[in-house]
Amino acid sequence: MYAQQIKTGARRLKSLAEMEPQERAFQEHVDAGSKIEPKDWMPDGYRKTLIRQISQHAHSEIVGQLPEANWISRAPTLERKAILLAKVQDEAGHGLYLYCAAETLGISRDQMLEQLHNGQAKYSSIFNYPTLTWADVGMIGWLVDGAAIMNQVPLQRCSYGPYSRAMVRVCKEESFHQRQGYDSLIKLCRHGTAAQKEMAQDALNRWWWPALMMFGPPDGESVHSAQSMAWKIKQNTNDELRQKFVDQTVPQADYLGLEVPDPDLRWNDARGSYDFGEIDWEEFHRVLGGDGPCNRQRLEDRVRAWEDGAWFRDGLMAHANKKADQKSLGRADAA
Amino acid sequence: MDAPPHANRTHSNDALFAYTLRLGDNCLVLAQRLSAWVGHAPALEEDIAVANVALDMVGQAQLWLALAADLEGQGRNADDLAYGRDAGAFRNLLLVEQPNGDYAKTLMRQFLFDAWHHPMLVALAASSETRIAEIAAKAAKEAAYHLTRSRDLVVSLGDGTGESHDRMQAALATLWPYTGEMVLADPVDEALAVTGAAPDLATLAAIWSDAVGATLTEATLVRPADGYAQRGGKQGVHSEHLGYMLAEMQFVQRAYPGGTW
Ligand SMILES: [Fe+2]
Ligand SMILES: [Fe+2]
Q1: In B159-261, which residue ranges form alpha helices assigned H by DSSP?
Q2: Out of B32, B51, B253, whose CB is closest to A76?
Q3: CA-nearest residue of chain A to B158?
Q4: What is the mean pLDDT of residues B176-180?
């Protein structure tokens, strides 16, 4: 997902009886479905886990601007250009709310960016794939925003108040993005030329598996996943969400007349779900570890934007300080 | 014999077509330039702001080009005009096609344009041509916001650090020769000014000059001396830069003719 493989610092789950009174009160509060707010006491691990998850989510929104921004200048109509600009602008806005949500936990945006730039913090593996044709833009809206929604809808019920509220705003916009992406694929596949449909099929071939990887590896016996669930940061297992995504998406591919690139994909009547093939987790780990097709390029772009922009940020700060000094001087004169 | 319906006008549809193309092309070309910063701006707030301005400009381009296509009456639409013309048929100012350079140059270009664009749209909102007046009234609201933003940034960065000041001053020097064209009237401008369809550019020149002068003073920037004003964009004689921009912008339409997008 936008946050993949978040470590919680837990080695095993504590029972209520083993907890100190403060932690027990916290856990009971969470168990009752109440929200934790910034000023409330919280276990250190809970705070650190949320910082990791929310900042990774924010970084994904920011880096996620790049593959789509790559096509703004080449969008094939003025309307598509406007829609894409608005979408990428929304993603930057999501990054902004999420950085603000993480800041309530005692970390600054500059610190988080530093962690992104030095490679300490991760972002979603999906944004390390290239956008090679116009159809990739539609594919990202349909599949990537679609997968993001699967994950973010339950996050609206996350125990941490600022994160859950940020998700409410974000989810509305993501579903809009998903519909616009799908709509542009309908144009290519159902109203377009043979070459356009071919372009869409090629894009699906390249994006299908990376989209499934967005949900992360099966939780299995992961203590981190169990701890996140106990804290109500996470509500569903990775496999549950992935299955839901496949079940929702395959009929949409059928409507487009596109073939999902998975020979093992078939409807399972007994389960009432689609069975699908084995995901290449080696590829997932390789991309997350830095060797995807675009990891270096994406990070370089972000670091360059930050470094080249230092004079701009310093200039604004210097001007604001001058104004503040003049104001306090003015007050001193008046006194 | 009855007089033709437009006999009372002293300007032709050709002049109106040319004029609305200029307005639309300015917006389209500047939007295209600004888009290149999305995801690469110096701060997250700037990624958002630059996308927002670009989005407004695309919207305005759509309105002007749709009107231009209608005035032309050849069955073309706004997209045909945007994606089907070669550089020589574009009528934008040379200023807006200037390369982005650093963020200082992008912001200075924006300010110099906004300081002209906003009063231009305010004047056009009173145009004798209703369809022009309607688009201008809507666009003027957006342009007012663009001008406030670019003006504030020019002041802050001009009067910021030594480096930000020097960058803004250098950007100003590079762009200054392209500002004269905005207020240099040609026969199209004159024909429309006579009927009240468009403002008199001499009046606009004074408004622009005062606003720019005041802002530069506040920004502690030195106003360059007026030299020869580079010109030609409004008549379709552009810099070398425009062809590359269009090659990129029009690529998909040209590589996949007859598509539905
Ligand atoms: Fe987003
Ligand atoms: Fe989105």
Answers
A1: 162-175, 187-194, 201-218, 241-249, 251-255
A2: B253
A3: A315
A4: 98
Length of chain B: 261
Give the separation between CA B248 and CA B96, rounded to whole angstroms: 16
Q: How far is CA A315 from CA A233, A301, A320, B255, in A?
A: 39, 22, 9, 44
For B164, the closest of A66, A109, A314 (CB atoms) is A314
Mean pLDDT of all residues belonging to chain A: 95
Residue B260 lies in a domain: no
Residue pair A247/A254 in contact by the 8 Å Cβ criterion = no
pLDDT surpassing 50 at residue A147? yes
Mean pLDDT over A198-224 rounds to: 94
| Whether A223 contacts A45, CB under 8 Å | no
**Mean pLDDT confidence for B83-92:** 98
- Name the token pair of B182: 């905005």
Predicted local confidence at residue B10, as pLDDT: 45
In the chain, the amino acid numbered A250 is V
Domain that holds residue B213: 13-255
Domain count, chain B: 1
Residue B4 in any domain: the answer is: no
Q: What is the per-residue pLDDT for A335?
A: 62
> What does the pLDDT look like over B7-63, one tens digit per residue?
444 457 899 999 999 999 999 999 999 999 999 999 999 999 999 999 999 999 999
The answer to whether residue B1 is domain-embedded is: no
The pair of three-digit structure tokens given for residue A253, joined into one six-digit string: 């591919």
Let me know if residue B2 belongs to a domain: no
* A95 contacts in chain B (CB < 8 Å): 44
Report the b/e string of B128-149 with b at 16+ CB within 10 A: ebeebeebbeebbebbeebbeb
Q: How far does the centroid of ligand 1 lie from the alpha carbon of residue A65, in Å?
A: 9
Strands A273-275 and A266-268 turn out to be: antiparallel
The interface pTM score, or ipTM, of the predicted complex is: 0.95
Q: What is the sign of the dihedral through the CA atoms of A173, A178, A184 and A186?
A: negative
Average pLDDT over residues B174-199: 97
Q: Which residues pair with A273 in a beta bridge?
A: A268
Mean pLDDT is lowest, of A4-13, B110-119, B122-131, for A4-13
Please state the pTM of the whole predicted model: 0.95
Residues in B closer than 8 angstroms to A80, CB to CB, are 261
Across the interface, of B61, B83, B160, the residue whose CB is closest to A318 is: B160
Are B55 and A95 a contacting pair at CB < 8 A?
no
Identify the CATH number of the domain in which residue B140 sits: 1.20.1260.10
